[in-house]
Structures are given as structure tokens and as C-alpha cells.
Amino acid sequence: MKPWESLVDQKIREAMEQGEFNDLSGKGEPIDLCENPYEDPDWRTAHRLLRNAGFAPAWIEERKDIDAEFDVALARLRQVWKILQNARGSRHEAGATARWEAGRSEFIEKVRELNQRINTWNLKTPATAWQRRRIDPEREIEKIQS
């Protein structure tokens, strides 16, 4: 036994060397990850039926809706920024600047609303690994402007 190798590691290595893992059932087949082993068995069948019918649990559908609304708001903000960039130095610059400010304010308000929904949504997720980060509107605006 090597000094850094634990007893468990040694036993596993020896078993592998003796070929004890060669004929295990399922060898070479992909692991079935469509079932959640931590899911409540009472809900598993219901979730399987919904998934097979093309539906997802309400908390997953809500996440999709939040993401879709954010994408639309971000696309609108990019559009008004592009309009402002194209109007620079022209007679339309003042109007484009006003439009940008209105679009920016609208975006910040939409993000506020989405962040409230994200807070509620995070409470509905079955595990913290699925929680969604809140959106930082100023960071998103800076990304568009750079």
C-alpha cells in the first residue's frame, strides 16, 4: 500500500486489478438521468406523466417565463441603444437620447419586477442549486454600452 492511498482506495484498486468490476450490469450503457433520485416518490409518477406530455413543474415553467421576459427587455434596451448610437451627431440625437433614457428607465423597472418574481421563484425551487441569481440592471446596461 502506498502511503497516500487509503484502505478503501486500496481495496477498490485491488478489486479492479482482479477484474471484479468487469461484468457489472449496465456496463457500457448510458446512465439514466431522467429520474431524480431525491424526488418524492409520490410526485415522481405525476412528474413523469407531465414531462412525457411536454409539461414541466410550475416552478420550471415560471423560470422559463422569467428568462423570456428578461430576454425581451434586454433586446428592447439594445435596440434603443443602437438607435442612439446611430443618431449621434445628427439632428435626431436629442430624440434618440430621450428615447434611450425612457428605455433605460423602463428596463430598470422591468428588472425590479423580475427580481421580485425571482425572489418568489427561488423559494419554490426544491433545491438551492436551481435558484436563479437576481439581475443587476446597472451591470446589464454597462454591458450594452461597452
Total of helices: 5
- Average pLDDT, all residues: 88
Instruction: Determine Rg (CA atoms, Å).
Output: 26 Å
Secondary structure: helix percent:
55-70%
Largest sheet, in brief, is: none
Strands, count:
0
- What is the ordering of alpha helices and beta strands? HHHHH
Note the overall shape: elongated
Percent in strands: under 5%
Structural class assignment: mainly alpha
- Ranges with pLDDT <50 over ≥5 residues? none
- How far the N terminus sits from the C terminus, by CA atoms, comes to 58 Å
Please tell me about this protein's structure.
With 146 residues, the chain is mostly helical. It is 64% helix and 0% strand. The chain has five helices and no strands. Helix 3 runs antiparallel to helix 4 (93-124) and helix 3 (58-87) crosses helix 5. The chain is elongated and about 80 Å long.
List keywords for this structure.
mainly alpha, about 150 residues
What does this entry show, briefly?
The chain is mainly alpha-helical. The protein contains five helices and no strands. The model has no long low-confidence stretch (mean pLDDT 88).
Topology diagram in text:
Layout lengths: L6 H11 L23 H12 L5 H30 L5 H32 L12 H9 L1
Helix pairs in contact: 3-4, 3-5
